[in-house]
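Lecture notes, continued. The same structure-token format from the folding unit now serves as the input rather than the output. Read the line below as a description of shape only.
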């Protein structure tokens, strides 16, 4: 074979191999494009199914059907594993369905990825509360307060702090709850609804003074707010501020009454407190009164207290059988130094104060020895124990 023929043979072989390579490349490229198309179509379909099932789960959860939500959300997660929003919904559905342990595990896994998330910490706090684990509940509540929040974090943190305060009240941790409420109050705007909530919760903790202050803030914005009038009246009554209590309770009842009811007797706790505060103001021997008026009240109160003492002492028979508290009172009532005539009392403010102290001491001692009194004696006992009287 000549050199020319060899060259032609090589050229034909090269062209054939090139053509073969080109065909194979085209086939490979086509298969790659088809595979890529199918993969993207499959991925898109999976994503579509994940969105569809998670949407069903969200709708079921909102409709109060947590069990259906759990099935739908688990299906959604099978198409989109590790999707945080779906996992959060599933954890919420488990909690709503009462599967506390499963929900705790889900939220704990989410917490490990984002320990500073305010929402996750809040859910862990609620689950700990359900499991009667106050130590962890408080820990996660506090972590939620100082955690990160999407949206208005200031409002969410305040809401969590109020929820923590309610939880502490339920745990009878009144002082801790009061501290949380006062912190929430310090970080809050002048919102009447929030002030009313703070007032109600502070009163629950036993903090009548701060509760009364926040009720008054509500009334400053709306003097006819029925709930605030009633709450402020009750707080004032328990604080021993009977003048304010009388005014506030009267306004509260007036705000509640319809025109047909105003002239009718309406028994109830508020009416009882109103009557009591009115009567207490009639009995109270305030040092701010004119001397003649104060002496008149002292003489009236002395008569009431003396009858109470005599009735209590009579249960022990003779005076030599009186317990120490009553024996000391008996000596004071019988003392020559105690002159309860109107003329003597008018002559000396010191005598008036001594008589008032005897009245209050009588009501306190007889209540301890002979039980709770009724009528005017019960009201004098309230006066004796009111903060103003105790401090004085």
């Amino acid at each position: 074979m000549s050199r020319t023929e060899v060259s032609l043979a090589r050229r034909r072989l090269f062209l054939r191999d090139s053509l073969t390579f080109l065909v194979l490349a085209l086939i490979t490229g086509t298969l790659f494009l088809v595979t890529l198309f199918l993969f993207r179509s499959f991925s898109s379909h999976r994503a579509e199914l994940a969105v569809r099932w998670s949407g069903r789960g969200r709708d079921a959860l909102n409709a109060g059907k947590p069990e259906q939500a759990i099935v739908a959300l688990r299906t959604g997660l099978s198409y989109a594993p590790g999707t945080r929003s779906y996992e959060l919904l599933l954890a919420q559905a488990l909690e709503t369905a009462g599967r506390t342990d499963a929900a705790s595990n889900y939220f704990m896994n989410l917490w490990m990825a984002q320990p500073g998330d305010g929402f996750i910490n809040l859910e862990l706090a609620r689950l700990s509360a359900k499991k009667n684990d106050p130590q962890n509940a408080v820990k996660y509540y506090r972590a939620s307060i100082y955690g990160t929040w999407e949206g208005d974090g200031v409002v969410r943190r305040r809401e969590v702090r109020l929820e923590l305060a309610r939880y502490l009240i339920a745990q009878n941790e009144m002082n801790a709850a009061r501290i949380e409420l006062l912190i929430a109050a310090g970080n809050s705007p002048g919102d009447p609804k929030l002030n009313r909530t703070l007032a109600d919760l502070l009163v629950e903790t036993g903090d009548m003074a701060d509760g009364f202050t926040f009720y008054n803030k509500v009334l400053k914005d709306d003097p006819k707010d029925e709930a605030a009038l009633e709450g402020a009246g009750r707080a004032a009554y328990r604080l021993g501020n009977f003048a304010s209590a009388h005014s506030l309770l009267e306004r509260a009842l007036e705000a509640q009454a319809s025109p047909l009811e105003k002239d009718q007797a309406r028994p109830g706790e508020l009416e009882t407190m109103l009557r009591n505060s009115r009567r207490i103001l009639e009995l109270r021997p305030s040092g701010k009164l004119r001397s003649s008026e104060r002496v008149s009240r002292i003489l009236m109160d002395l008569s009431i207290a003396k009858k109470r003492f005599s009735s209590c002492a009579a249960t022990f028979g003779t005076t030599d059988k009186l317990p120490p508290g009553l024996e000391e009172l008996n000596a004071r009532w019988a003392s020559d130094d105690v002159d309860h005539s109107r003329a003597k009392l008018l002559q000396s403010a010191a005598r008036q104060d001594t008589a008032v102290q005897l009245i209050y001491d009588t009501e306190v001692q007889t209540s301890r020895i002979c039980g709770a009194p009724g009528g005017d004696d019960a009201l004098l006992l309230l006066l004796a124990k009111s903060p103003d009287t105790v401090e004085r």
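Point for the exam: The domain at 22-112 is CATH 1.25.40.10 (Serine Threonine Protein Phosphatase 5, Tetratricopeptide repeat).
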